[in-house]
Design goal:
Blueprint (H helix, E strand, L loop, with lengths): L2 E12 L2 E12 L3 E5 L6 H8 L7 E6 L2 E2 L5 H5 L1 E4 L11 H10 L5 H14 L15 H12 L6 E5 L7 H16 L3 E6 L2 H7 L2 E6 L2 E6 L1 H8 L3 E6 L5 H7 L6 E5 L2 E6 L2 H8 L7 E5 L2 H9 L6
Parallel strand pairs: 3-8, 3-9, 6-7, 7-8
Antiparallel strand pairs: 1-2, 1-4, 4-5, 9-10, 11-13, 11-14, 12-13
Helix pairs in contact: 3-4, 8-11
């Protein structure tokens, strides 16, 4: 599997503000690569440089072996973008939005009509072809954005927070469509704050914070390395911590206190729970470790504005 995107010492500044602070990564052909991070982490800024709408301040960024730049029409023609914002033309119908967008890629009307029909079936909107954008639900608009991103049959697809604000049914349908695109050979780049979304779609991820990459790897490996297999949550006052930690001293568990909850990260959550029964504690929970635990451990649990 070849490498499609390579970044080395990639930096993006807006005046004195450093949005991306010298990061390195590689994205392989045919994989789904995820950028995770809180608001302001630099993930959207990074993908905007990849799909050539924001210039690189310094460092190297190659896509398909070519330097990424805002004037690189070759890269723009091989890329499809599913934007975070819903920027459809509200004065046009569903079909017209796609047909007119096809003109940007010099696709003839006859060929555009064929592709539009295929894509509307793909995103399950063929019955809405003549509908105005204002008549669509948010989920339908998101699916139309996917169809629009595919009109040029891109080699690389960038999905920037593609399921923001959607209900579970719409979110799962979009996940299915994105997975289907990957099986057809497309390379996907995903930015998201939904940890379940990253686990559902991504082969590899990076966790970003304040413009830097904190960790890189497969979702499963990051959970195993950073957290373990299980998490035990105990909602109890801080004054109980020393007694509980002492009682569990025989277990190899990392722990942290966050607000009203004491967390233990361990491989044998069942054994920890059995031991905790001796203390007769209320409000205890044993659950599998998740990517969200990794995310919160690395980026912190406080709000990021």
């Amino acid at each position: 599997m070849g490498t499609l995107v390579t970044a080395s010492g990639l930096v993006k500044k807006y005046g004195d503000v450093v949005a991306v602070a010298g990061i390195d990564f590689e994205i392989r052909e045919g994989e789904c690569f995820g950028f995770l991070g809180p608001n302001g982490a630099g993930k959207t800024t990074t993908v905007r440089m990849i799909h050539c709408v924001s210039p690189v301040t310094s460092g190297t960024l190659l896509v398909g072996g070519l330097p990424a730049g805002i004037d690189n029409r070759v890269l723009k023609k091989m890329t499809g973008v599913i934007p975070q914002e819903i920027n459809l033309d509200i004065d046009l119908t569903v079909k017209e939005n796609l047909v007119i967008f096809a003109r940007f890629f010099d696709i003839g009307r006859a060929e555009a009509n064929v592709r539009v029909a295929e894509l509307l079936r793909f995103v399950e909107l063929e019955a809405k072809a003549a509908a105005k954008i204002s008549d669509l639900s948010t989920g339908m608009k998101r699916r139309l954005l996917i169809a629009r991103a595919l009109i040029n049959r891109p080699r690389l697809i960038v999905a920037d927070e593609p399921t923001t604000g959607l209900d579970p049914q719409a979110r799962h349908l979009i996940w299915q469509r994105l997975r289907q695109l990957k099986t057809q050979g497309a390379t996907l780049i995903l930015t998201t704050q939904y940890m379940e979304e990253a686990q559902q779609l991504c082969d590899r991820i990076v966790v970003m914070y304040q413009g830097r990459i904190l960790k890189e790897g497969t979702p499963g490996r990051l959970v195993e390395e950073e957290i373990g297999r299980e998490v035990v949550e105990i909602r109890t006052p801080p004054e109980d911590d020393a007694r509980i930690r002492g009682h569990l001293s025989g277990f190899d568990c990392a722990h942290e206190r966050v607000g009203d909850t004491l967390y233990f990260y361990c491989r044998d959550g069942h054994g920890v729970m059995k031991k905790l029964l001796e203390l007769d504690l209320p409000n205890t929970l044993n659950r599998p470790a998740t990517l969200e635990d990794v995310f919160l451990k690395l980026t912190g649990r406080s709000l990021h504005e």
